[in-house]
C-alpha cells in the first residue's frame, strides 16, 4: 500500500573531531594508506564530548528549520538508531530533553534494527502518518560507534564514524510524494556475524574485565556478512518491486547503506547499477551505522543528484542479519 | 482512526527461580515483611541462566500455538521490551534465532519506550496491520531486570521481576475487534527520575569500576515519578477518550502498568476506578517492566475477567517519562 508521506526537512550534525585514515593507520599500527585502501574511507568523525542526544537535537533543530516549521508543529520524535545513549530511558526522550521540550508532551520512542533502524522506523511510522495519527514527525538517527570499536580487529575498527541525521516527515497530498513499496527480511543465521555480545542483560557491564572486554566491543566477520548479503540481495530487491509497475531501471537514485567501500562497489555491480545512480559517500564519513542511509539521502539532495519527484530506493543490510528496502517518490 | 486488529493468541514464560519477598528482605537486610508492605509484591521470578531470547521464544511458541497457527503464518517478530539481550543485534533477531527460524526471512526489529515498549509497539504496528502490510505478527516483551538492580537502593530493587509475554496480533474483520483510540505523551522533565545512565554510548562498560558501578544499575526516584504521573494522568486519560463516544465508565477492564502496589492503588482511586475493573497482578510477579501490561492482560483473560468484545484500556507510565494508553475492543 502506498503511503502518502513527504520528507519536508533535513538536518545533520557531525562531531567536531575529524579523523583521517592516516590517523587511523597510526592507531592500529599499519602503514599509511592501508585503512583507506581497505575501506574507501578518507575521513570520518569521532565525538569529542558530544552525546547522542546532543547530536540528535542539533540535527533535529536544523531539520525543523529546513522544513519551515517550529517544534510546536512536531507531534512525535523517534530515534531510529543502532546505538543508545543510556540503557534507560529511550534516546528519543533524551533528545526531547536536549531540545528543551521537556514539558511538551511530544511522544518519544526508539526503533532498533541496528544499521537499518532509521529505515525501519520510516517504513513503520509511514502507516501512522498516512492514517493521520501524526502530522509532522522528527525521525533522528544519532550514532556513536567510536566508543565501542575494537582496535584489535582492524577490519571493523577502521570503518566507522559518528554523527547524526534528522528528517521531518509529514503527510503529503495524495500522489505527490510517498512510499511506493517497502520490504524487510531478517536471517538470524547471520545474527552473530556482527554483534556486541555485552552491555545488555546477557553479559552485564559488571562482568567487564580484561578477559571479557572484547564482548563489549563491536565484533564483525565482514567477509561472511558480505557473502550472505550478496546471496540474498537480488531476490530481495525483486520483492521490493513486486506489485509495483516499476523496476530497478526506473529508480533515479539508489541510496545504499554505506557499509564499506569495496563491498558497496561489488554489490552495485551485482545489481547492475551504474555509479551515477548510486549514492556513495563513505569516503567522507565512514560507516555511520543507521545514519548512513539518511545521510546519503541528504547528500544526494544537497548535491542536486536527487530532486523532488524522483524515485529513490533506500536499500541496506544490518546486523540481525536484516535487509531493508524502501522505494519512495521524494 | 480505528485499527481493526485482533489478539488471536497469547503465551508467557516465567523463569525457573521463584523469589519470595522474605528472600528479598534477607538480601537487603530488612526485617521480614518490609518489602511486601512497601511494594505489594509477594513473589517475583529471577532468571537462572535463561536469556531474553530464550524466554521470548518460549512465550512466542505458546502464543502461536494458542492462535492455532504455525510460524509459517507469522510475517513479523517485534520485541517491545525495555531491556535488550545484547547491544547488537536486536533482541527480535535473537528470538528468531532461538525459534530455529534463522533462514525464514521473517522481519525482526525492536521498539523501546522502557515500560511502555510493548504498548507503543502494539499502537504503532496496528497501523501497518490495518493497512495489510503484515497478516500475523508476534509481539514479544521479554524482560530481565534482576541483573541490573541496585541492592543498595531498597525502594527500587525490591519491585522487579523477570519474565516474558508474547501475543499474536492479526487483522480482524471490520468492527469485530480493534484499537478504538490510543495516545502517548513524553515529558522528559522526568527523564532522569528512572534511568540506567551507563551501558550505552555515554558511559561505556569499559568505564565500569567501583566508583561508577551504580551508573550501570537501575536508579529510580519513585516518589517523584509518582507525583509527576499523578499530575499528568487525569488529563491524559481524557485525551485517550477524545473523539470516541466512550468514557472511562464504559471500559470493562483497565489494564495498568504494574509499577508498584501502593502507587497503583492511589492512581486507581485518583481515576475513580473500582477494584473489580482494575487488573492488579503485581502481588504474584512484581514489576516486569514492559511485560507487565501484556501479562496483566493475559491474566485477565485467563481468569475470565476479560472476555471477547470487552472494552479494555491499557494504561501505563514509563521511564522517559512517558504515558501511554490504548483503548481496545478485545
From TrEMBL, chains A, B:
Residue intervals of the Beta-ketoacyl-[acyl-carrier-protein] synthase III N-terminal domain: 109-187
Write the protein's name.
Beta-ketoacyl-ACP synthase III
Question: Residues in domain Beta-ketoacyl-[acyl-carrier-protein] synthase III C-terminal?
Answer: 244-330
Q: Which SUPFAM superfamilies match?
A: Thiolase-like
User: Which UniProt key words apply to this protein?
Assistant: Acyltransferase, Transferase
Residue runs in coiled coils = none
Under the heading InterPro entries, the entry gives: ACP_syn_III_C (IPR013747), ACP_syn_III_N (IPR013751), Thiolase-like (IPR016039)
CDD domains (UniProt xref): KAS_III
Note whether Secreted occurs among the keywords: no
